[in-house]
Amino acid sequence: MAKKLPNIDPQELSHAPDALKGGLKCVFSDKRKVTIGTGTTRQSHQQNVYWYVEQIAPERFGVWMLNENGVPTGKRKEVGKDELLSSFYPELEYYNKHIAPKVLQMTMSVSRGEQCRSSSDFDGATEEFDKALQFDESNVRAVFGLGLTHLARGETHKAQHTFKDLIALEAAFTTEHKHLFNEMGIQLRKNALFAESVAFYQRAHELSDKDENLLYNLARAYFEGNDWPGCLRWLDKCLQLNPALKEALDLLHLAIEMIGNEKVRTQFDKPHLDTERAEQAQALWDRTLGLDIDLD
Question: Of 82, 81, 61, which Cα lies nearest the Cα of 72?
Fold first, then answer.
């Protein structure tokens, strides 16, 4: 059963943010064969399936499923203009009457939530993100925003619950949400949720394995969690991808300084590096400095 949705104010929708304007936005349909029953009661018929379509480039379009509340959800599929026009039929009246008001209301709730969070109005942020999630419980920006709001308020238990929802959303770990999952991983680490931070970055790494900043953040999460093997393993991967990344070099240099230096380890509250890890860190440092790179 569909959830009871927030009331839609037509006057408020007339002030939709610029992000909602420009480019084609519409609902398209295609026909699917649907079979019900079994044996002698088995019947098949054609059924219209509705999709939300939004132009993302001059000749490219994003296609999303519509959920039971009539708003786009899930991971975006991309199609070209020819495929869109040959495989789908535009449903402009259906879009204008049933879908556009809900999409605008949901998007505006997310935008207001992000504005509230930026100004540290965490009560307002929670309220707006919750409104958006009534339309689509898998709305990536709303789930991210709610999780970051919980972390900002120190609500660790609620943040962990939201984290579980996020890590299951494949749509969360795409290029368009890169800044959000980086911020989420950093805030998890800063709230001493090291295991969650590591799991989050590893999930992101599965879908984007050529991002040196992501690899550095993984190394940093292991460092904060006092896991030298994990820290050095991901630092190695990071510096193989970008030997000149300053943050990674600084972290490696700090690890080198801690070898045999109890004062520095005590200052950062870090465990002893055993012989194998000390040799690994030194070898990584020597290898990186031996490359012809610009460290300025």
Answer: 61
Q: How far is CA 256 from CA 227, 251, 252, 288, 295, in A?
A: 15, 9, 6, 13, 18
Q: Three-state DSSP class for 24?
A: coil
Give every strand in the sheet of 60-66, ordered side by side.
72-80, 60-66, 43-57, 25-36, 89-90
- 84 and 53 in contact (C-beta within 8 Å)? yes
Residue ranges of E strands in the chain: 25-36, 43-57, 60-66, 72-80, 89-90
Q: What mean pLDDT value characterizes the chain? A: 85
pLDDT of 206 reads 82
Which of these, 223, 137, 208, lies nearest to 175 by C-alpha position?
208
Residue 160, classed as helix, strand or coil, is: helix
Please give the Cα distance from 49 to 58 (Å, whole number): 25
pTM of the model: 0.74
**At residue 15, does pLDDT exceed 60?**
no
Q: What is the mean pLDDT of residues 252-276?
A: 92
